[in-house]
Request: fold
Amino acid sequence: MNYIEKRLDYFVNKKDKLNPDMERKGRFFVASMLLLVVMAIPYTLYALFESGLSEENFSLVVVLSVVFGIVLLYRKFPIRVPLVNFITVIMMSMLYTTFFNGGLFSSDNIWCIVYSCWVFLVANKKSGIFWFGFTIVYYVVVFYAEQIGLRDFKADFFNIKSELVFVNYFFSGMFLGLIIYLHEKGKDKYLNALLLAKKDIEVKNKELEVQKQNIVSSITYAKRIQEAVFPQIEKIENYFKDSFVLFKPRDIVSGYFYWIEKIENKIFYIVADCTGHGVPGAFMSLLGISFLNEIVPKNSDASAGVILDQLRDKIKKTLKQKGEKNEAKDGMDLVLCVIDTEMKDLHYAGANNPIYIVRSGNEMLETSEPEMIRKMEENNAVLFEIKPNRQPIAIYHKEKPFTTHKVKLLENDVIYMFSDGYADQFGGDDQRKFMSKNMKSLMLEVYSQDFSSQKQIFDQKIEDWKNGTEQVDDILLGGIKI
Reply:
């Protein structure tokens, strides 16, 4: 930036400097104002020498004195457009003298066009259009004034010295040419800066794209690792002939996981929802699976609640959770179903997540905790909701041992285990949550169908519900038939 530009920038308002285009216009405003003063000084001196301190010349001297004050005012307040219009009002009002020195033939009329062009360049289109409209109206008024013989403008014009006419056209033409030059120079500099910024952005975008590809590649590899530690669907189908797992991660990797293992005559089945999505949740899921692989084989005779107690202790110890203020509350919500294949008994424990059991007919559910059962009846079937403990697998201010629910199962009972992602998905006409009530009704509607069809129905239903809406959470839903 050269010396002159630095001096001009001194007068540009600070708020306008925050926007490159506004800064450009502000610099042009200051430059054109100072140019007007510089050019008007010799013009004024010549006019004073030729005709003395006339009313017109006195007005010009006053205006030039005010211009510098206006530039200082702009430096203080971001009111460039109002100031431009204010100056134009003053300049246009001085042209009333053309009525006495030639009217439509006066060389002063050229300044109407010059001022209007200047407003277009330094203010905005609305102001420029207004002043061009004013100029046209002014010319029309002067034209009709001559037509009706209000004044003999030609006689007035011939009384004016030709030198004054030449000086008028010379200075007005020079001023117009210089402001157009300054404007184009400033615009070129602005456009070049934009072009450089665009190229810089393009380079950075390419760098970001490469980084994104590297990150996606790494996360995709992490997905393969996560999938490797998840149980195979064939393993679940080996334990439960009629079963399905609907797993729809929101991101490449998921914070949800399912885990299943059979020890003697007991099948341990877990569906879990870890804190967070994507990579943070995926790390938690790997941690949970690792702990379950360690805890369950050693405690296969323990109750479902005790297994969750031990899992919680492991999580708290590993994450160094002590209940301190501002401490991270990472953990998981999950359901654990322990099914005795010989006795047809279900032992269930839940951390914030319930399970649903759908039974054909109206036979009641035998359970050790009847007060924690809620039911819903539709289509000659009953859906029993077994409530969980309202606490996570993590540090909690009202921590207590997890409850083990003992349930006597009947043949053809269908058990659904799930995360909150399905019911919490936004969509529909009103962009609201799907809600657990609708999920229950859907389960009562499809529970008797084969499980591959059920999976397809649940999947299609939530996709139709989303209808293009972004998935808000991971979705995990598992179903088994006794």
Observations:
- Residues 162-229 form the longest helix (68 residues).
- The chain has two domains: 3-202, 230-481.
- The longest strand covers residues 266-274.
